[in-house]
Write a structure and sequence with these properties.
Strand 10, helix 2 and strand 11 form a beta-alpha-beta unit. This protein folds into two domains: about 270 residues, Rossmann fold; about 100 residues, Orthogonal Bundle (Rna Polymerase Sigma Factor, Chain: A). It is α/β, with parallel strands linked by helices. It has ten helices and 13 strands. It is globular. A seven-stranded mixed sheet has the order 5-9-6-10-11-12-13, sandwiched between helices. Helix 1 packs across helix 2 and helix 3 packs antiparallel against helix 7. About 30% of the residues lie in helices and about 15% in strands.
Length: about 375
């Protein structure tokens, strides 16, 4: 596989969705051999950097994003841009201190924020890949990130950090490139995806594929499967929160409490209104086919894939691993994350577990910034 990628400065590689604001980012092109054996002849990866790489080139931290996020982890370099998904944690003097560290975040392979994905042009046909895009894995995403770091001439990482899908990538880094990573900080994730998680993802994918506008993925230039993607996001949002969170915030309130008629079939409870808002918000900024492929990559996540066993894969790890579970998470139960730390220690990995106390469920790592800040600072200072 060639490892020389030609750098270009490109605009959007394909039209934005529903008014999504694109950022001008550096891009790379080159063939990529996937875990499945398929080959992508051209690959583009868009990324953002924050801070300065030191003369020794050893102060880099890779931050990996979750399912529907992108490379804009923070907007500290240009306050006029839209806010990043971890804005309070990245910047001068913050947990990910850009006075000290060089922070890198790239959009994952299969995404729709500039990195090659189903909406990208297939060089063989001149049309979007759609469902001709090959199935990808978390490991494939990590290989793309490694190509990016090779171009930047970065041979070691102080840390790889991520939550949820991003945490899966961080763990995969520890196994796939063990001598390159000093610390792995993985939040609300596991070493292999659970059957209940796969079930939730299948329900979401089915919602998209049952939308008549999906057309087996060939909707580019036509009607977008809005209803299907909205329903997929609604299903996912339920798993991202907790009973306690919903009860505390919404209870049984009706959306229009003062003038509501509970016997009007279409009258909404406040929680229904919230779910629909979150669903429609995603439709304005995300590609439905990317949602299918990224959730499939989550389902395939298994650190032991391709090794003699799961334990054998863990024995490859040389990094110190810090795992953070979330007390109310129903997607990655805290005991599952704690169990991974125990299993790692059994296989000789120096691993630590902490638990974020929050009623907000899986999404707490995007909400409980003071606790996440403390955790990150403690991990990086050890």
């Amino acid at each position: 596989m060639p490892n020389h990628w030609n750098e270009e400065r490109l605009g959007p590689p394909y039209p934005s969705y529903q008014g999504q604001k694109w950022l001008e980012l550096h891009s790379f092109r080159g063939p990529l051999l996937l875990t499945s054996g398929a080959i992508l002849e051209e690959v583009t990866v868009n990324y953002q950097v924050y801070g300065q790489l030191n003369s020794s080139r050893d102060n880099a931290i890779l931050v990996c994003h979750a399912l529907t996020a992108g490379s804009l982890v923070a907007s500290v370099d240009d306050p006029e841009k839209e806010p990043g998904w971890w804005d309070p944690l990245v910047g001068p003097g913050r947990a990910l201190d850009t006075n000290k560290y060089f922070i890198i975040c790239s959009n994952v392979l299969g995404g729709c924020y500039g990195t090659t994905g189903p909406a990208s042009t297939n060089p063989k046909t001149g049309c979007p890949y759609a469902m001709n895009f090959p199935v990808i894995t978390i490991r494939d995403m990590v290989h793309v990130q490694k190509f990016l770091l090779d171009h930047l001439k970065i041979k070691s990482l102080k840390a790889v950090i991520g939550g949820s899908l991003g945490g899966m990538q961080a763990l995969e880094w520890a196994v796939t490139y063990p001598h390159m990573v000093e610390k792995v900080i993985a939040i609300a994730c596991s070493g292999r995806f659970s059957s209940i998680g796969i079930s939730f993802n299948e329900a979401a994918r089915r919602a998209i594929m049952n939308d008549p506008h999906w057309r087996r993925g060939r909707y580019y230039g036509g009607d977008f499967p809005r209803q299907g993607l909205a329903l997929a996001r609604l299903i996912a949002t339920i798993t991202y929160r907790s009973r306690e969170s919903f009860e505390k915030r919404f209870g049984r309130l009706l959306q229009e409490e003062e003038r509501a008629n509970p016997f009007n079939f279409f009258e909404q409870f406040a929680v229904e209104s919230y779910l629909n808002y979150q669903a429609n918000k995603l439709v304005r900024r995300f590609d439905a086919n990317s949602y299918l492929y990224l959730t499939k990559a989550m389902d395939l996540h298994d650190l032991g894939m391709g090794y003699a066993s799961f334990a054998a894969a863990l024995r490859r790890i040389r990094a110190v691993v810090y795992l953070l579970g979330i007390s109310s998470d129903i997607l990655f139960y805290p005991q599952e994350v704690r169990g991974l730390a125990v299993t790692m220690r059994r296989e000789g990995v120096l691993s630590y577990y902490e638990e974020l106390k929050s009623p907000h469920g899986h999404d707490a790592f995007l909400i409980e910034f003071p606790q996440v800040k403390t955790f990150l600072r403690d991990c990086l200072s050890h």
